[in-house]
Amino acid sequence: MHTSKNDIRKTALIAVGGNSLIVSKDKQAIPDQYEAAVKTVKRIVDMIEQNWNVVITHGSGPQVGFILRRSELAS
């Protein structure tokens, strides 16, 4: 993609994961997190279509804790 000096784009750093995927205490299951991720991605797509530079990173948060707990239970 070619950009000129006059083509200034905004940049957003977006952390997806962690608490951004846990909507409430009652919505922690994988399907609930999937639904939250879909909503988040739609917003990110809107930003890209509005000519934003987007950097996406994972926020980890509760998901890492869930994986650790699952490993502890399995051992």
Task: Report on this structure.
The chain has 75 residues and is of the alpha+beta class. It has one domain. It is 44% helix and 16% strand. The protein is built from two helices and two strands, in the order E-H-E-H. The protein has a two-stranded parallel sheet. Strand 1, helix 1 and strand 2 form a beta-alpha-beta unit. It starts with 10 loop residues before the first strand and ends with a helix. The model has no long low-confidence stretch (mean pLDDT 84).
Quickly list its features.
75 residues, alpha+beta, two-stranded parallel sheet, 44% helix, 16% strand
Q: Structural class, judged by helices and strands?
A: alpha+beta
The run of helices and strands is: EHEH
What sort of overall outline do the alpha carbons produce when their principal axes are compared? elongated
Strand ordering within the main sheet: 1-2
Give the helix proportion (percent range). Answer: 40-55%
Our count of helices gives: 2
| Mean of all residue-level pLDDT scores | 84
Number of strands: 2
Q: Span from first to last CA? A: 50 Å
